[in-house]
Input
Amino acid sequence: MRAPIAAGPKLPSTRQRTLLALAALIACFVAIAAQLLRLGLKAEADFHLNIAEPIGQSWSRPDIVDRHGQLLATDVATHSLYADPQLVLDIDEVAEKLTAALAGLDGTEVRRALADRGRRFAWIARGLTPRQAQRVHDLGLPGLAFRTELKRVYPLGALAGHVVGTVNVDNKGLVGLERWLDDMGKVEAVQGTDRSEKPALRLSLDVGVQHAVSEELHAAVARYSATGAAGLVLDLTSGEVLAAASLPGADPARPSDWLELRHADKLMSGTFELGSVFKTLTVAMALEAGVADLNSLYDVRRPLTIGANTITDLHPSGRPLSVREVFLHSSNVGAGLIALDLGAERQRQFLAKFGLIEPMRTEAGSIAPPQLPKHWGRIETVTVSYGHGIAVAPLQLAAAMAGVIGGIKVTPTFLAQASPPGTRLVSQATSAHIQEILRLNVTSAVGTGRRADAEGYRVGGKTGTAEMPGRGGYQAKAVISSFIGAFPMDAPNYLTLVMLFEPEPVAGIAPGITAGVNAAPTTARIVHRIAPVLGVLPRRIGRAEPTDAQFDAPSAAQ
Amino acid sequence: MGKLTVLRIINLALMLSMLVGVFALYAIKYDARQLETRVQMQERDLEKLENNVAVLIAERAHLAQPKALEPLARNLGLGPIAPRQYLRLDAPPAANAVE
Output
């Protein structure tokens, strides 16, 4: 007998199963329709693909322009050639064809880059011109490809090269204002050729003035067979540097220039004993401290002896000289006596006040720190009074001189900016006296700066001729001749500095090597060119244009 | 007409609409891809033009630099403004005479 089947749950009918399947299907369709609707309405996908590409990263930099907007540095897209060593078939063929197509490419370097077959990326040449890139492209070599990247270009070449500075192959700032841009975070890392959208960096430099200074310095180097030169034009009120040139110059397109000592920036990266221009500071100190006035007499008839050292004058005077005459005759003995009246401590304090003791910085980098006497005794006080035994960077001395001439502390800047007014350095009376003797040094028949007078533009200034230190002491025939001046002297607006390194006598125009016959006339030539550009009106109008003969004439200002 | 037939029709309609949807989506996606390519091409052209402009600006600055212009200006007999070229408008003619 069969056991009865236990009654289980009731199974759904065929109809119910069909309905269930249909319901599931409808649900699927609804889901698909919903998805379609969603995709149709949604504008963008909700995922991003980030591809990290560490190679070929470059930096985009803002343009650099002069105070009037003239372009000094900009980024352009260039082609850079790279290779995938694994895809290169014949290394020798590639190296040979590439060196033939690209002048200056080192074949051994190419072979070395391609030899490592394990690598997938090796730079071959960067910053190619479109024509060079086309030539390489036409070779049709496998394993080579191009990437476009930004390259810094300097349309004005070496003009103001030291100030602008330069970048490395990745467009990263190395020196000068290019370095400053990096330090200030004004550059951006980019892939490809996205140019910077940051506003251009506006410099205080005036390309017209810079060019005039640079050209006149080149001419002076040729005329006086000098080994180098430097020139500066500084706005006395704002501290803005309108021109800063140092020869031999540095070309931003050739970063190797910065590694060569002879191309070093003489205004900022070197310190020099600048000689008699320091007498201006000595007189200013004496006037400000009240130890003397312009008419106080000093007995300069005999050499000044301190211990074993004897200080003499080039042309000893047969009578006592007033402070004014000490300045005009550029008497070392007189300056020494004034400094002794002042004392070492006060001299040091004044130099510190003028900013000549502490290291200085500008946007274009640090300035070589001053070299000061280790022991500041009587002999050091005397030598410092006429600019020996103390070596400072010319830009730092120019700033101190600007402070003494205008009476207000001046902080040199390479950016076009209205700096806040500086503190008063010397009284108005002292700066007026300094202005008077600086002008007198150019207009007086006995002044050492007579040849600096640029017709109508009221130049004033002080010469300095310092023997260069060499093996076994100072060299009498190798000097740095300099002239620091200002114009127009009735209301000084601009300071000029001209330095010539190892100038030689020139028959007919420069009988010696002192600053009065080379740096002074160079200043006159510069002022004659830049004064109209700077909007300085000549006082006496209607004069004929000066000729070369007039610039070099010994009695030009008499 | 039974209930089952109605459901079959619905099912068919849904299937058809899904197919239409698929085609429509494909068409839209295709258009979008076309547009994207066009945008990319135009962006590339724009970048190229921007770079050309940058090169031209740099070239203009290079050609118009004082070092290049000075010899040309000197050739034309030009030079820095000389004091004799300034005239005072408020002064009598004699004051402006060249000495």
User: Anything to note?
Assistant: Chain A has two domains: 57-202, 208-252+266-552.
